[in-house]
Design brief:
alpha+beta; six-stranded antiparallel beta sheet
């Protein structure tokens, strides 16, 4: 009589034990990053609606000694692009936009020779042939307030770097153009459209915009690590990043957002399918699309993960959504240096039953000091002999060089750029 009941009790006990072990393993990994790399931010891991781990580390304000909390707001940087894509797909569901629409249908006065050749779908999938950073080639700065019309002029002054549809080329200007299209079809401002069509319906009460003079409450201050020194990141006016990097949010709001992307209740089934279909280079519409494997607890099953991240001065973000197993990982950071993708993937591995490896100490700061020394050539030659964990990655070097540039140390920024130009000859360095 009692055997089935006991069986269910045993299953429940094992499930609870497994979740407790996962929570401990995830906590150990994030704590190791905090101790090794000074990780500062908030982290969340969930299976469906059930939160497996939620934690906060470091300072929201180093000057005031205010700790980060799990409800601290962080800038999202380019993770904002996924929100813009969802907004566009909501308007597709309402019949206001079609993915095949060309830019000039909604922006007939846009002074761009390619306006009649680039489609909404190409903008969403970074296949429009547009350049990477909105203000590149312009004398305008991230400290200025720029109206959308001014941004459109800057964008239209730049030449295409590829034919529309020819290849993937990541582009923030493309998402600025999408914001302009949203304003055109909704006959309202982009921020209002985002509130009405995405944020309010999903009850994302802690997600919004960081407007100059009206910053959200509990917003983490941004910091840059310049190898051995932590400094506050320069002020920015995010008007230049409309539609491409202008949102702030919390780990719990991003879990709500993740759950909405896993359901047909918010976006139609066809719109979700379109978003999550790769157009090449592992990118769909506003999200990266990859396959993943699992460990023994999921029988080694495979599935699809959609994700996006963001990184700018004093900001690092990453959202993973493992669709078949309903697992979400969120990492938000207010200190530039840490590789948030590494943090996100390691904690995801725990939830997927793959690995509980704790990051080992590394020599990256030692290597970076050598790169800036008088014997930089010798240091560069030594890089090839270092273990992978000791070699600074592309993103780490890029953020460091840009950090020196923003902090008024052009000589160190130049040294970083010279080194990177040798290793990554096709990339752009906006500070040189």
């Amino acid at each position: 009589m009692n055997k089935p009941y006991c069986h269910f009790l045993a299953l429940g006990f094992l499930s609870a034990l497994g979740h407790a072990q996962d929570e401990q393993a995830i906590g150990s990994i994030v704590q190791a990053f905090h101790e090794r790399d000074d990780f500062s931010g908030a982290v969340l891991v969930a299976e469906g609606k059930r939160v497996l781990f939620r934690g906060a580390y470091g300072f929201a304000s180093r000057e005031e000694k205010v700790d980060n909390r799990v409800d601290t707001r962080f800038r999202l940087a380019s993770l904002s692009k996924t929100f813009n894509a969802v907004l566009v797909m909501r308007l597709v569901d309402q019949g206001l936009i079609d993915l095949g629409d060309r830019i000039d249908l909604h922006l007939p006065d846009l002074p761009a020779e390619y306006a009649d050749r680039v489609t909404v779908e190409q903008l969403l999938s970074h296949r429009a042939g547009l350049y990477r950073d909105t203000l590149s080639g312009s004398e305008r700065t991230r400290q200025e307030h720029l109206e959308l019309e001014e941004l459109l002029e800057i964008i239209c002054d730049q030449e295409l770097i590829a034919e529309p549809g020819e290849r993937y080329s990541y582009s923030s200007p493309g998402f600025v153009l999408l914001a302009a299209i949203v304003e055109s079809v909704t006959e309202s401002g982009y921020q209002r459209a985002m509130q009405e069509h995405v944020l309010r319906p999903l009850r994302l009460e802690n997600t919004g915009f960081d407007n100059v003079g009206n910053a959200p409450l509990d917003l983490a201050t941004r910091y840059i690590r310049l190898i051995d020194e932590v400094v506050q990141a320069p002020a920015q006016d995010l008007s230049f990043a409309i539609g491409a990097g202008d949102l702030v949010s919390t780990v719990d709001d991003l879990l709500k957002f993740s759950l909405a992307l896993q359901s047909d209740d918010f976006l139609s089934k066809s719109s979700r399918k379109e978003m999550m279909r790769s157009r090449g280079s592992d990118y769909g519409l506003g999200v990266f699309v990859y396959t993943y494997g699992t460990g023994e607890k999921f029988g080694g099953a495979k599935g699809r993960v959609i994700n996006h991240g963001g990184g700018t001065s004093g900001v690092g973000t990453h959202l993973n959504i493992f669709l078949e197993h309903e697992i979400t990982t969120v990492v938000l950071s207010n200190l530039t240096e840490i590789d948030v993708v590494d943090v996100s993937n390691r904690i995801a591995n725990v939830a997927l039953g793959l690995s509980t490896d704790i990051p080992l100490p590394n020599r990256k700061r030692e290597v970076l000091r050598a790169l800036l020394s008088a014997d930089a050539r010798g240091a560069i030659a030594d890089l090839g002999r270092l273990e992978a964990r000791d070699r600074p990655k592309f993103g780490e070097l890029f953020r460091l060089g840009f950090g020196f540039y923003e902090h008024g140390d052009p000589e160190k920024a130049r040294k970083i750029a010279e080194f990177m130009s040798g290793r990554y000859p096709k990339s752009e360095w906006p500070w040189v």
